[in-house]
Amino acid sequence: MKKVLLFISALVISLNVLAVELDGVKVPETLNLENQTLQLNGAGIRTKYFLDLYVGSLYTKNKTSDATSVINSKTPVAIQLDITSKLITSEKLTDAVNEGFEHSTGGNIAPLKDRLTAFIGVFKEKIVKGDDFVMFVSPGKGVDVYKNGKKLTTVKGDDFSKALLGVWLGEQPADANLKAKMLGK
User: Which pLDDT value is given to residue 19?
Assistant: First the structure.
């Protein structure tokens, strides 16, 4: 009987460890898209000026704390953004993405300009608290972008995918603390 109770206690404790909730967002342990199942690598809260803006989650095939291996991954990777603030607008997110690509590419966005414009188009529709965006990176294909579970576009090219991942995981990430959390640190 003691063994059964010990097993049940261990199971309950492990289930609580697996449940991730940040800023009111329940972050799933797995993400299933495009016939792929990815596991949560890490998640954190994007803050700016002491305000929580969104929960950012990184999904990978195999957990890693190495940003470079994620950016150069030969297997699918996804980043999910769950909007938690009413302060996030289309204009502000567009500006943030443009700034992120500037940093990610070292200012050399010219080769990506047309694709970046297409990518930013997914943020033109009104953004409200509770919206979620998923950027699903498939090496050799590009990035499939979803809003609230609906696929909006595909942006082709591994160069674009790497620049996009660099916005959150590069040398000059949007938020260094969020980068660390997404990498499970």
Answer: 54
pLDDT range class, residue 16, cuts 50, 70, 90? very low
Do you know the residue count of the chain? 185
For residue 6, pLDDT over 60 is answered with no
- Cα dist from 15 to 9, 12, 40, 161, whole Å: 10, 5, 15, 33
54 DSSP β-pair partners: 46, 83
Q: For the structural domain made of 28-182, what CATH number should be given?
A: 3.50.70.10
Q: How far is CA 108 from CA 102, 111, 112, 141, 143, in A?
A: 7, 7, 8, 22, 19
Q: Are 72 and 169 in contact (CB under 8 A)?
A: no
pLDDT at 51: 85
Q: Which amino acid is at 25?
A: V
Q: Is 112 left (phi over 0), alpha (psi -120 to 50) or beta?
A: alpha
- Percent helix / strand / coil, the chain, rounded to 5: 40, 30, 30
Confidence at residue 68, expressed as pLDDT on a 0 to 100 scale: 97
- Against a cut of 0.85, is the pTM above it? yes
Q: Which of 105, 125, 126 is nearest to 115 (CA)?
A: 105
To the nearest 10 degrees (0 to 180), the angle between helices 113-120 and 90-104 is 150
Indicate if the pLDDT at residue 11 is higher than 80.
no
Which DSSP category does 131 fall into? -
